Amino acid sequence: MKELLMQYNKYFYASLGLHGLLIILLVFSLDPSVDATRGSRQLVANPDIVQAVVVDEQRVAEEVNRLEAEEKQQKKEVEEKQKQLAKKLEQVKLEREQEQTKLEQLKRDMAKAKQEEQNRLSEIKLEKEKEKKQLDNLKAEKEKEKKKLVALDDERQVEQDRVKALKSEREKEEKKHSDAKQQLEEKRKADEAKRLAGIKATKDAERAAAAKHEKVVSEAQRIASLWGQEVKRNKRVIETLPADLKCVLLITVLPDRSIQVKVEKSSGNAIYDDAMVKAAYKTQPFPLLEDSAVKQELKQFPIGFVNNEEGVR
Predict the structure, then answer these.
(1) Cα 124 to Cα 137: distance, rounded to the nearest angstrom
(2) Which residues contact 23 (CB under 8 A, 6 or more apart)?
(3) Is residue 47 reached through a cis peptide bond, with omega within 30 degrees of 0 on the bond before it?
(4) Predicted pLDDT of residue 170
(5) pLDDT of residue 63
(6) Band (18; pLDDT cuts 50, 70, 90)
(7) Strand partners, 252
(8) In terms of Cα–Cα distance, which of 272, 262, 270, 275 is closest to 303?
(9) Which fold has domain 212-306?
(10) How many C-beta atoms lie closer than 10 Å to residue 297's C-beta?
(11) What is the pTM for the complete model shown?
(12) Closest of 170, 146, 166 to residue 158, by C-alpha
């Protein structure tokens, strides 16, 4: 960056020098005093013109007019050149100001670039310091981990020795109690066989009880069905009632074989329900039951009836 600034300054001052030299040349080339002196020398150096002035006033007057015209023309040219010079000077001044502006902008850019470079270098420095700190922490962590691994190796060796000792002790204990273990296993097998035999006996008894209960239920249903048919025969036929009337009676058999009747589910027709209750009471006493299980099953039971229909529901 410094070399770029020095190179730019070199070109800038060289440009200023060239512009200054151009201005000096233009000033000397357009100086009226130089032209006037040169004209005076021409007049003095020409003896013919002097003689013409003395001899012929007309020619003198013409020459004077000519000289005045030339002077005016030269003055006009000088003024024109001065205007051009002023314009060029203004242009040079403008260019110089532009160059100065560029130089200042370049300086600002360089200062900004320098600051940015310093900021970048500072960030790099901070980043390096951060990386160094991380590396130091990592190194310390690795050292700590290494010590931990060494300690773990020591603990592992101690544990292996302890396990080895326990294994040896266990082998001795197992050898010592092998006979007792065998006896315990034989006892366990015997207990298991006894338990399984008990379970089998229980299941057999349950199956037998279930079969007996099923037989009792079947017998109770048969007796109830026969008794229901008898009730149906004892029912007073009422032809005016609908044929699809249904009701369920709850029958309770007392110890003396008499019964109690209750309408458990009405047919919706009180006349039909009352007729079925009366028919049930006419079918007393309830049949004699020899089997106590069947007697218990029929101690209380529901029975359904349908008007003008054979059988029991």
Answers:
(1) 19
(2) 85, 88, 89, 92
(3) no
(4) 87
(5) 87
(6) low
(7) 260, 300
(8) 262
(9) 3.30.1150
(10) 20
(11) 0.36
(12) 166
